[in-house]
Amino acid sequence: MTLPKLQIALDQTDLKSALDVAKNVSGFVDIIEVGTILAFGGGMESVRCLRQLYPNHILVCDLKTTDGGAILAKMAFNAGANWLTVSAAAHIATIEACKKVADDFKGEIQIELYGHWTFDDAKAWRKLGIKQAIYHRSRDAELAGIGWGKDDLVKMRQLSDLGLELSITGGIIPEDIHLFAGIKTKAFIAGRALASENGKQTAQALREQIAKYW
Amino acid sequence: MTLPKLQIALDQTDLKSALDVAKNVSGFVDIIEVGTILAFGGGMESVRCLRQLYPNHILVCDLKTTDGGAILAKMAFNAGANWLTVSAAAHIATIEACKKVADDFKGEIQIELYGHWTFDDAKAWRKLGIKQAIYHRSRDAELAGIGWGKDDLVKMRQLSDLGLELSITGGIIPEDIHLFAGIKTKAFIAGRALASENGKQTAQALREQIAKYW
User: Fold this and answer.
1) Other residues' Cβ atoms within 10 Å of the Cβ of residue A113
2) ipTM of the complex as predicted
3) Residue limits of the Orotidine 5'-phosphate decarboxylase domain (chains A, B) (predicted)?
4) Which residues in chain A show pLDDT less than 70?
């Protein structure tokens, strides 16, 4: 199993602030994500700008695409994204449309696991050739004090067994990493933890824990 | 029952093209929507600009908010939106966060009915005081040739009975209007049909059908 990567989610409301954060953390993350908040705040210009500044990072565009798949996917990949997020709640025709565009750009689709998705859905995504999903505590659920539960970990293992590589997010701290050992983990995604003053130390602590359990 | 309104969805990929369409149709629609495609293409600047140009229209920001509810809602309402769309797949904590911000701005939340939502979800939305939902054929489902079915109409009536006012969308043409008679319809949303050269005639034909069945 390859070592999980580290991903920074840029969720600033404007491009200028996001570029400041990116500058601070680019040296110690593998993946830079234009979060939904930044994507709506600054538009696709945010993706274009980060692609230009960081040509060697994997660039994720977190649109949580729910409809209009082909158009949104073309916008994101044209702007320079490598990976695009698509909502688990999207119609399978939307997901298929995104996958086709991703293939044209040699990019990848990541399914965002929100709402009442089912394992039948997950099998349908795999059938389309989709290899990645994102599992998270909702930011708002986290704020409401809802933690990582046994139920989460069971579902993650089942998705992993279906062949989906998972990116895991939602207030991830180094002390959480051991919980996910044995799960096909593509990346751990952090936003505020890496954007803070101690971002570099947090990244190192995360990498140490990853090396210990993978 | 008040007469359903007409809404134009601006789903151009850039603000300039969207402004051209808005200019053509503003005289015969009640509601202008910054569609998800435009919101990602041009960022919140699109909302600010349309608010300034059309101070008397209801302005909808179609973010299909799935997470980070409070921040996205503040961005949308601060930019001048009256209504904000939130995904049915969002965690209830996200929906609640959006509702709180909407209340502060005297705005409204519209739940976008994507994914495996349930009537228990719908009751939970109503409990938060949410009054609107958007029912649609997915654009991609429509492209795949999937029409308005009996199943759609039964669900719409049930949502209507729960007290949710519905905006209905997905390739709406005047000949479809009679299907929705008796449903608490807030608005019919059209994009391409109103943006075309015959937009004004289509709007008139839609209004005639609405007047006939409401």
Assistant:
1) 21
2) 0.93
3) 5-206
4) 1, 138-139, 141
